[in-house]
Design a protein that fits this description.
The chain is an alpha+beta fold. The chain has two domains: 182 residues, no CATH class; 195 residues, no CATH class. It is 56% helix and 20% strand. It contains 14 helices and 16 strands. The longest helix has 44 residues. The two termini are 27 Å apart.
Length: 408
């Protein structure tokens, strides 16, 4: 029997019971759509995280402290100090910029406006280039401001609006805790990146923050301890080489070996890779859960095909009596199962693509349709149809022609 004839007969058989066929395909439709939607949500989340990390700057190395307590009332052992950043900038080749950040939470007052728990970020002049930020009004502080611990501040866009409304904040004096500082600039809108709202912060020279807002009893002994150093690597430099130079320099400064560093060094790619591995595992879990619907749909196809074999037993006997071989019967019923799976897969793919787009439009979550997920879901639907359709098809092919003709 020609293949075209097999498809024609199978399609006509499906068309005779359209409602039943549609209900049978429902499990496949839901399964395929669920796989596409789940993977698109996971891929969208992964892309959002990657964009947020990249938005913090390019070619960045993150050096963070690993503090350890020596005992009650004693200083912390290890970790980073402010002078480490200066040493990196002066002694490591391939470094484009170095930024030190130290945070504090203080009350900020401007006239009659008082705001509590405002994040005060002490940092260095390279902060703008490393963090990909720009100044919309005034200027950012300079190396001279840091060196002389000048009492100046740059406001985030939203913080400037809250404190001064429509009044020009440049040159105005504000009170940060008990320290009066002069506003010299306002940053352009940045928004929230990685759970940090850059527009709601106050930025001051790192030297001023360490002296006024982040002073510890041990600063004179071990130096001004800082939480993190950001190093921007030159585009032409080798990232791994810069990391190795940095580890050797800081290990020597901290008097520790490379095997027992009191700090950790990571890159943006390390963070992205970690996030990708987490979301990949989550995506696989979602895909397996959605795949259960495909299996349920396959069981439904097998069940309906078994019913169809019983209903059409006499038809099978007539076809066998006029020359149809067991292979012809097997192909006929297997093709019916495959057609239902493929049609259900096509409908499910359309529903999945539309659902992903709709979900990304109406919700705050980003969705990203992955072409491979469509192929995966559609291929899985075809495989399910072939697997669960084989038993009914084989059962039909094994019917005895005489018994089949006698069947009422």
């Amino acid at each position: 029997m020609r293949l075209s004839e097999v498809f024609r007969i199978a399609w006509e058989a499906i068309g005779k019971n359209k409602v039943r066929a549609l209900l049978t395909m429902l499990g496949i439709i839901i399964g395929v759509a669920a796989v596409i939607v789940m993977i698109s949500i996971s891929a969208g989340t992964e892309a959002t995280i990657s964009d947020q990390i990249t938005a913090l700057g390019s070619n960045l190395i993150y050096i963070s402290s690993s503090f350890s307590r020596m005992g009650p009332g004693m200083a912390s052992s290890g970790g980073l100090i402010y002078d480490d950043a200066t040493a990196i900038e002066e002694q490591i080749s391939g470094v484009k910029g170095v930024v030190v950040e130290q945070d504090a939470s203080e009350t900020v007052k401007a006239g009659s406006v008082s705001l509590d728990a405002i994040s005060v970020t002490g940092t260095s002049p390279d902060f703008l280039s490393v963090r990909s930020l720009t100044v919309s009004e005034g200027r950012f502080y300079t190396t001279d401001d840091v060196t002389n611990k000048k009492k100046v501040a740059v406001l985030g866009y939203d913080l400037a609006t809250e404190l001064f409304g429509t009044t020009d904040p440049i040159g105005q004096t504000i009170l940060v805790s008990t320290t009066r500082v002069t506003v010299i600039g306002v940053l352009a809108e940045k928004g929230t990146v990685g759970e940090i709202d850059y527009d709601a912060r106050l930025y001051a020279p790192i030297s001023l923050v360490l002296q006024k807002f982040a002073q510890t009893p041990f600063s004179r002994i071990v130096g001004d301890q800082i939480r993190m150093i950001f190093v921007q690597v030159d585009d032409k430099a080798n990232m791994d080489n810069v990391i190795l130079q940095t580890q050797i320099l800081l290990a020597k400064r901290h008097n520790v070996s490379l095997d027992s560093l009191d700090f950790t060094v990571t890159t943006q790619q390390d963070i992205i890779a970690t996030q990708e591995s987490t979301t990949a595992a989550f995506r696989s879990l979602l895909a397996w859960v959605a795949g259960v619907s495909l299996i349920v749909g396959g069981i439904g196809i097998m069940n309906i095909m078994l019913v169809s074999v019983t209903e059409r037993t006499r038809e099978i006997g007539i076809r066998q009596s006029i020359g149809a071989t067991p292979a012809d019967i097997r192909w006929q019923f297997l093709t019916e199962a495959l057609l239902m799976s493929l049609v259900g897969g096509l409908i499910g793919a359309a529903v999945g693509i539309g659902g992903s787009w709709l979900f990304g439009t109406v919700s705050s979550m980003r969705t990203l349709i992955v072409p491979s997920s469509i192929l995966l879901a559609f291929g899985s639907a075809a495989a399910v149809g072939a697997f669960f359709g084989f038993y009914p098809a084989n059962r039909a092919a094994q019917l005895d022609p005489i018994d089949a003709l006698r069947h009422e």
